[in-house]
Amino acid sequence: MEDLKAECMKEQGFEYIPWYPEEPDAAVSPVLEDPIEDARLHGYGTFTTDVPVGQELVDPNEAITSAMSETERAAYDAALYRGSPGPSPSADGEDDLSDPNLVGCDAWAWDALYGPVPEEIRTVQEDPRYVEINQAVSDITAKIASSPDLARLNEAWSECMAKEGFDYLSPDEAVADT
Description:
It is a single chain. This protein is mainly α. The protein contains ten helices and no strands. It starts with a helix and ends with a helix.
């Protein structure tokens, strides 16, 4: 998908570096058909990735966008995300995912690989309550990852594991190594 987005952004006149998080499980994956069942099984993704605690995933495109003016950044974001998380209607009122100028490169690439985002998922993602809870989850995840208490616990855990012959800085690192 990242390669498709890069190709699309190039056609829109922008540089986009395909970005694959270091841990494969940290990448966004399609939601099960029933979002309630998906949340029941997997939560909201807060504690279900294998990114080692304290390791920050940095999108290389941040270097590109941080050097842009506000106007350039707005045009970049429009090219990448216009219409996301779902399609925009064409002139006849129908969703048209075939044109990245209508939907943005992100939605266009998603559709090219996975098919259209179902209406019920788009509706949920646009709901202010979803946006609010999504932000709250991001905030608590960041707070936990930067917690000095967690760092101390990981250090104690690491020392205990070292006594048993294992060299890991955190439980997440051990899981990622399996």
